Amino acid sequence: MILKSQVEWALHCCAILAGLPEGRYLSTKALAELHGLPKEYLSKALQSLSQASLVDTTLGPSGGYRLARSPSEINFLDIVEAVEGKARSFTCTNIRENNPCRPAGYCDSKPCAVARIMWEADEAWRDTLRRVRLSDLVGILSEEVRPDLWQSTFEWVLKRAG
Amino acid sequence: MILKSQVEWALHCCAILAGLPEGRYLSTKALAELHGLPKEYLSKALQSLSQASLVDTTLGPSGGYRLARSPSEINFLDIVEAVEGKARSFTCTNIRENNPCRPAGYCDSKPCAVARIMWEADEAWRDTLRRVRLSDLVGILSEEVRPDLWQSTFEWVLKRAG
DNA sequence: GTTTTGCGGATATTCTGTATCCTTAATTTG
DNA sequence: CAAATTAAGGATACAGAATATCCGCAAAAC
Ligand code: SF4
Ligand code: SF4
């Protein structure tokens, strides 16, 4: 069980978009270059963010992406689910139905305990991600990243933001 | 991100093994038949449990598997990690190293905030699974499964247990 | 009108999960 | 002892998902 690398990409891109001045856009090209990622494929991740209404887009030169809401109104789960999907990590194939001892026509009223426990763990994972806001991430990064790198990165970004 | 179906299989098999009388073994053949699973492939899952020292095995006719410890000393995480592996679900490909603004020779002292937050969620998932013991599962199942089915299943099992 | 951009569809490639088969060694049964 | 049964592990095939690239389209900027 492993998350797609697009999750990492999307999180990093959102962190960058969170630092954009009001009303400006940043293109896929710039984001791909900044992170050293395949432009065409990163585009798919950004499209996922767009479909989840996490980002606004505009076309044409000087077009690109910007956050649809403030970084404090977007949490990690929003971003992760946009890319990874909302499906639970444990899928029940209902193997208990194959039990040869089962009376014919026996109908299970609810999902069995195994599934419920696995889903509970899944919910704990989601809860943790839900509690971390994009603004929290930006706060941590701005403290941890070396100031000169932090600054030159955003100069680099602003030069390319439409 | 989806868990392998072997996880479900392993959990169900352990629940059955937990109901075996002291010292008896149950074969792959019986477990596969009971759950309607491909015997050869289920065998791989059981081998994982064996490698993780969760079950004891013995060869020959009347051989098979039994729990290596009491059901109260085995938790969900033990079983899940045995078949799914202990790797974290989020893998960091360190894309920040591609930042063109990076000073040459810049060395990151620690994993970045994105990775740490994702790993924290992973830990929450594991914690939840760690807190549920196999004996808890058996307790719930014995209450929820219709008594006649519960009983006939274990009669079926005992008839095949070596 | 030309360029740039996001978007979606189509396609190819690589990797993982699923599944089967076969050999070997240990153990029970007769 | 001989035959049957079992777990273990290696080899291999198959299916589906993740990764990646390419193309055509419509909207926006200039
Ligand atoms: S016991 Fe639970 S997890 Fe297993 S098949 Fe039934 S519903 Fe699914
Ligand atoms: S920012 Fe974190 S998750 Fe992203 S590449 Fe760097 S270390 Fe990995």
UniProtKB/TrEMBL annotation, chains A, B:
Pfam family, any one: Rrf2
Record's GO cellular component terms: cytosol
Superkingdom assignment: Bacteria
Molecular function (Gene Ontology), one example: DNA-binding transcription factor activity
SUPFAM superfamilies: Winged helix' DNA-binding domain
Protein name per its UniProtKB record: Transcriptional regulator, BadM/Rrf2 family
InterPro entries: TR_Rrf2-type_CS, Tscrpt_reg_Rrf2, WH-like_DNA-bd_sf, WH_DNA-bd_sf
